[in-house]
Amino acid sequence: MNNEQKVLNLLGLTRRAGELISSEDIVLKAIKNQKVAFVFIAKDAGASTSKKFQDKCKFYKIAYDLSFTKEQLNQATGQQRTIYGVTQNGFAKKFKELLTM
Q1: Most exposed: 7, 37, 43, 90, by fewest CB within 10 Å?
Q2: Helix crossing, 47-59 with 24-32: angle to 10°?
């Protein structure tokens, strides 16, 4: 199993553990309040949405990832969203590890 698949499996696990938030407004607020440890932005998100979240993440020094399409993220989580935030540091650390290998 490749790392991409591991990340998607872990994303599903993160959701079942209740450590995943989604929807633009909720994740944006969490970024501003520094309540999120890692952000997934779908690579096929709209240009302005993608830029807004990348800029916010950089400003608040929160790691983010653009490797997956909406379809991949939605399939992994069972939700129809473009933006996902991981709220728990342990999961965030594991995502960073898998995505930099």
Answers
A1: 90
A2: 20
**Among the listed residues 71, 1, 75, 68, the one whose alpha carbon sits nearest the alpha carbon of residue 38:** 68
pTM for the predicted model, two decimal places:
0.96
Tokens representing 72 are 């991949």
CATH assignment at residue 12: 3.30.1330.30
Quote the domain boundaries for residue 72. 3-100
With residues binned 3-state (H G I as helix, E B as strand, rest as coil), the percentages for the chain, rounded to 5, are 55, 15, 30
State how far the alpha carbon of 62 is from the alpha carbons of 1, 14, 25, 55, in Å. 27, 18, 17, 10
Strands 83-86 and 20-22: antiparallel
Q: What is the pLDDT along the chain (101 residues), one digit of tens a residue?
A: 799 999 999 999 999 999 999 999 999 999 999 999 999 999 999 999 999 999 999 999 999 999 999 999 999 999 999 999 999 999 999 999 999 98
